[in-house]
Amino acid sequence: MKTPCSRHHLLCLLFLLPGPACSTDDAENGDDGDDGAAPDAAVATSPDAADPPTPDAAVSGDFTLEGDVVGPEIPADAEVILVWAVSSTSPDHAYKFGDGSSTGPRFVVSLAGEPPPDLAINDYGSGRRLAVGYVLLVPTGTDFPEGILDPEAELTLLGASRTPIIWREGTFGSGFPWPDAFEEGTYECGRCVPAAEGETFDAYEPMDCGEVVIEAPPVENDCNWT
Fold first, then answer.
1. Fewer CB within a 10 Å sphere, N or C end of the chain?
2. What is the full DSSP assignment across 128-144?
3. Which of 39, 28, 104 is closest to 67 using CA atoms?
4. 185 C-beta neighbours (distance < 10 Å), count
């Protein structure tokens, strides 16, 4: 389910709920956040600026995601982290697994060719497991080690992609069919499919990972898949 900031600030950031809920700092300091301003660490770029250097390559692995950072508040450099939303447990939690970097309008992040950690995976029983990882842009020097993230941790979010990384294992079937469109045991990228009339939840479908962008500042991700 979509999680209000009072329950889990980081899951709130993953789903990028509109209004002040999008900012952990605003939630703690009482700022109404109506102006939608980006963090001070972000800087605008000019169309006439020289081409930036390529970001440092992430650790070599079997899955590498590279793409553009777009928007009016592109940071000169930043870190890329992957945060996985787990809502099959109670309480929900967010798990940090995966790192990369950005330089100006380009980013790169890699994962080794192995499954996500068990605690980053939604386990629905009967061998059905699904991982949904969000690509986030944070200031250089942000210190989030791999593992479950403190729900009250402060996170300055410079940008985010509305396209998550999807990993699945097992056959889900007719009751929850969309994960079966993704190849089992591999990392792929998912495009949101809005719920059909009369249905409650949105879905994801496979898409070309070459089309993935990070938007800076982040915009609302209203894909309600769980």
1. N
2. -EEEEEEEEEE-TT---
3. 104
4. 12
User: Which amino acid makes up residue 56?
Assistant: D
Instruction: Give the residue-averaged pLDDT of 187-196.
Output: 95
Q: pTM (2 decimals)?
A: 0.77
CB 58 within 8 A of CB 82: no
Q: Is the pLDDT of residue 223 over 60?
A: yes
DSSP symbols for 37-90? PPPTT-----TTSPPPPPPPPPPP-SEEEEEEEESS---SEEEEEEEEEE-SSS
Cβ–Cβ under 8 Å, residues 39 and 170: no
- Residue 13 is predicted with a pLDDT of 53
**What is the residue type of 91?**
P
Contact 110, 100 (CB under 8 A): yes
CA 134/CA 80 separation, integer angstroms: 10
Report strand pairing: 63-70 vs 213-215: parallel
Encoded amino acid at 121, one letter: I
Nearest to 191 by CA among 209, 177, 172: 209
pLDDT-derived band at 144, boundaries 50, 70, 90? confident
Boundaries of every domain in the chain: 56-215
What CA–CA distance (Å, rounded) separates 186 from 204? 15
Quick one: pLDDT band at residue 41, thresholds 50, 70, 90?
Answer: very low
The DSSP element (H or E) to which 15 belongs, if any, is helix 9-15
Contact 131, 166 (CB under 8 A): yes
